[in-house]
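Protocol step 4 of 5: obtain the predicted structure for the target chain.
Materials: sequence only (see below). No template structures provided, no constraints applied. The aim of this step is simply to have a reference model before the mutagenesis design in step 5. Sequence pasted as it appears in the construct record:
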Amino acid sequence: MDGTPKLACPWDRTEESLGNVVELQHVNLQVPDQLKATAFYISALGLTRDPYLMTGIDNMWANVGISQFHLPTGPAQVLRGTVGLVLPDRAQLLHRLDRARRWLEGTQYSFTEAEGHIDVTCPWGNRMRCHAPDADRLGRITLGMPYVELDVARGTLPGMARFYEQMIGTSTAMRDGALYVRVAREQFLIFRETDKPQPAFDGHHIQLAFVDFGGIYNRLNERGLISREDSAHQYRFIKVVDPNDGRVLFEVEHEIRSMKHPLFMRPLVNRNAAITNNYYAAGNEAAVWAMPPA
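Step 4 output (structure tokens):
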């Protein structure tokens, strides 16, 4: 100690720590009809079909900022919760949603306006909550997937916090009665307790990237939690357990990638959904997914 006084810091430096999880890249949901999926994800929501990968008729990757929906053909899968989206223009979104009724009649498709967001249900029952950009609440995102909220049984949140903190090595916090698990700079998994009976897990998955890819693998593998070995860069697990007693608290497939995975932080093409052939402005075709520096 040289007697030099410590500087007073006006910021909570721990807020900048990401921990071991650095990417929420996609949510994977099977869809039985690619045409209806295009009508919903591309025409109604205004997302962008990936122009380079999965361009055939049996799968679609739909870009939303730095994240994606992966939509392979198969029996419909329904996430037990809500996917949060930030989309740039509420009025234009409502216009697109209204126009999409003609293509999605006879399905579960619906949307409802609320203060601060629009609740949208896909043709097969998946729930989306669409927000306008709001730096104070959702970070500096203008187009993206700030959270995936999952419905869980009563009494499970303390154990789930222990799992993600001790086993996965990321930070958690309780807000408004829900558990927020940080999974990237401005992205969260949110777990909210409910008394409603939940359907059995149907195989849908979320994809995360880990810094300590090998260390977390070893901790999960010691408990027999690894469910699939995909490649040198990727593995999966399904069960979220309480580290204290091993009790299974929730099931959702986690596709885990390393930071050496060839697709890690792959730049994604995002279109400006306001640009059409009838309302065209040269140089404005692309959407900017983040706000400029303050």
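Step 4 remarks: Residues 157-168 form the longest helix (12 residues). The chain has six helices and 16 strands.
Proceed to step 5.
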